[in-house]
Amino acid sequence: RDEIADEVPGVGRKCASLLMSKCGYENIVPVDIWMLRFLKDASYEVEVSNYKTNRGPSKEKYHEYEKIISEVARDHYNVSPIIFQCTLWGRHSTYKNKIPENPNQLEIEF
Fold first, then answer.
1. pLDDT exceeds 70 at position 102
2. Which of 16, 20, 43, 81 has its CB surrounded by the most CB atoms within 10 Å?
3. 36 touches 94 (CB < 8 A)
4. 108 neighbors 80 (Cβ within 8 angstroms)
5. To the nearest 10°, the Cα dihedral for 53, 47, 104, 82?
6. What angle do CA 52, 14, 92 make, to 5 degrees?
7. pTM for the whole thing?
8. Cβ distance 40 to 46 under 8 Å?
9. In a 3-state reduction of DSSP, which class is residue 25?
């Protein structure tokens, strides 16, 4: 992912992660605004950028956030990180539903 993001003009880590997840990589997570909001609402210390004026997280922060998301997916829900991300995005991308403060309270039906 980092090689794609570094070598392909106009492609960042999120886009490269999304591409790789669509190709079957289940341990790659597109860290988008919805995942950052989930982490922040779940009391993780994350920086939610204003994407209208700023770029996304740095390479180091991106990897840090992806690791946290992966651990929550495996430890709390026993699913792959990409399945967790897709489910969370699908249920909350309109952000009309408040994400629970405790990630253990998030109801995911498969």
1. no
2. 81
3. no
4. no
5. 60
6. 75
7. 0.74
8. yes
9. coil
